[in-house]
Amino acid sequence: MTVPTTVSAFFATAWHEFRRARYSLVTYEFLFKFAETWLFVPVVGMLLAAVLSRAGHTAVSNLDILDFLLTPSGLLYGAMLATIAMTFWLVEQAGVIVLAAMAEKKERSPLRQVPGMLARKSWPVVRLSAVLAAMLALAIVPFVLLAALTYRILLTEFDIYFYLKERPPVFWIAAGIGLLILLGALAVAAWLHVRWAFALPIVVFENHTPTAALRISRERASGAMRQIGLTLLGWLAGVLLIGATLEAGFQLVAATILRSVGDRVAVLLALLVVQATLAAVLSFVLVVGHGLILRRLYLFKSENPGVSHSAALVLTCLPQDPASQRNRHAAWLCILLVVLAPLAIWFNLLRYLPEHPMVRVTAHRGDARTAPENTIAAIRKAIESGADYAEVDVQLTADGVVVLLHDRDLKRVSNDSRRLDEMPYSEVRKLDVGTWFNAAFAGERVPTLDEAIEVCRGRIKMNIEMKFFGADRSLAGEVARVIREQHFESDCIATSLSYDALVELKRLNPRVRTGLIVSHAIGDLGKLDVDAFSVRADFLSDSLLRSAHRNDREVHVWTVNEPGQMMRMMKRGVDNLITSDPRLGVRIRDEWAALTKAERLTIASRLLIANSP
After folding, report:
1. Which residue among the candidates 57, 208, 309, 406 is catalytic per the annotation?
2. Phi and psi for 81 in degrees, rounded to 5?
3. Stated pTM of the model
4. Is 406 tagged catalytic?
5. Alpha-carbon distances, residue 222 vs 209, 219, 292 (angstroms)
6. 360-610 architecture in CATH?
7. Domain extents for the chain?
8. Which of 57, 208, 364, 556 is catalytic?
């Protein structure tokens, strides 16, 4: 057998191997993805839930995740998650390279033999995954520490939101350093990927232990790192780049077609089929191509280049036979199921479209696009917009007064760099927090929560977000007291990133509805003792939405400012849109409520295809 020695030759021989094994590879990838979705992932969820339960948690979210991950249970969680993710990838790749080896010998019905082989090799592959995950983590730790040190030195003088919004020179210095750190981490990860590229085929074909396989892989890759890197990493980068280009092109073409032909059902279904097929093909090409190229590189650098599989596989010797008719039929059936999948998506949309109570709209920090945030002026603008809620951020001054402010200091809104918790209210009250936004709002002051409630009473409800910048949790008690004294329980919801603070507030004032703000989480949030979840839009999953509603929890989503995004969230059945453009939110909400079910189905389909209504 002639072994290729150039990058183009590697790709060419990988293509020939694909042609020999194409039917088996298509069927294998379909079955693997199906099993990964419906079997492996739920099992992983149960295992992780067990770890959380052992640690005394139902779920952890936001900044509490970091605290949890630094505990023994959290480290176990992280190790399990990394190992399982690595195992999925390696097992998938193992199936690809074994099928290619069998096809080269023209083994009959190779798919029947792959499950048994993978079962025999599963424990070594799991061990290899654990070792790879651990060594990769150790290699990345220094970069994480450098990033943390950069943040600590350059971005902690003022509130981080000041740096993100104003972007002073020090922000760009930190961003530049951060980019270099990221590139360094990626370079190390790529170097390790190339260095250990042969470990999987060595474990599968040569029956070595994981540690020995890593050592042998390093030795064989020596002297050919550049060629291996260009071939493997070039393939991954190329497919991802082509995929992104094709997706952008599809979005552009689909939007043009929809504008030209309107909302014909046949056109919508055809575009859904094309979109789903494109995604499936790219995923298949990425995974299978990597596995086939890896095998060719492995043969090129093996001590015995002629080996395609060894006795360690314990394969049954069968007569040489071309791909059977059964393999062809199975592959074409899998392709048909992938092509028809959009029809299932289409009919599944129907269950999202029954009548729901009208979605409520929350004005983020008041109407902060037309008035300075967290001021009485912003609240009045929110009332004028027709929003159902005005969301405000509250903190404590040094003398314990609850006031409206987002950042930990007043640098951004008044050019005063002092922290709020270092200033008495009498000093805070003197500051002008309106001129930074527009001279027309000169003289606006930091309002107290009592003042904000008086403006809102009978006109708009409030979402009162408690902001914590230290260990002091007395804010929860003060907010509970103000709401009780103002008899405002039925007209507000208190929210926070801190679940413990919400529990404390509920203990002090049980009549107040509470909501956990969620930007990241692990575990089953639906079981936490709150009345609502305020979820970052790109984190909201269907499972979280169903779990929350199943447990009678509302789902608020933030921060949604685009018409298409608002419609997608309403289509999914959220209860509240938190937006910086409440006028738009109210208009889109009212238009959505006036649509018929058929019109909603059409818009939902357009959103799936072209991300625009």
Report:
1. 406
2. -60, -45
3. 0.79
4. yes
5. 20, 5, 21
6. Alpha-Beta Barrel (3.20)
7. 7-351, 360-610
8. 364
